[in-house]
Design goal:
The chain is mainly alpha-helical. 44% of the residues lie in helices and 0% in strands. Helix 2 packs antiparallel against helix 3 and helix 3 crosses helix 4 (45-60). The protein is globular, with a radius of gyration of 17 Å. The model is unreliable at 70-85 (pLDDT under 50).
Length: 100
């Protein structure tokens, strides 16, 4: 059985939040060098170092980024949503607004 598509899912993530998760995991869990991981996941080294710094700060502040939702990545530093996040359990507003 060819598992290459399954391996590619982890090695070449398509969504930004999944790519961020896999890159950070490669550094913190697998112990790969920062420069190597930045190149492998398409980050500029300086940008990736900032991402690592923010991740460390968030984890130490008990505000670890929830990687399970792409919309969760749209939270500003003050903790407020950068854009409205739709509640899938709530019916749409009769007066319009973003559809879910």
């Amino acid at each position: 059985m060819d598992d290459q598509p399954c391996r590619d899912y982890f090695l070449r993530p398509r969504s930004p939040s999944h790519r961020r998760y896999e890159a950070l995991r490669a550094v913190f869990i697998d112990g790969h060098p920062v420069a190597e991981v930045a190149a492998d996941f398409g980050y500029k080294p300086a940008t990736f170092k900032v991402l690592i710094s923010r991740f460390r700060h968030d984890v130490r502040s008990h505000n670890g980024p929830p990687f399970s939702s792409p919309m969760a990545a749209d939270v500003r530093r003050d903790g407020l949503a950068a854009r409205p996040v739709a509640d899938p359990t709530r019916p749409p507003s009769p007066i319009g607004g973003p559809s879910t």
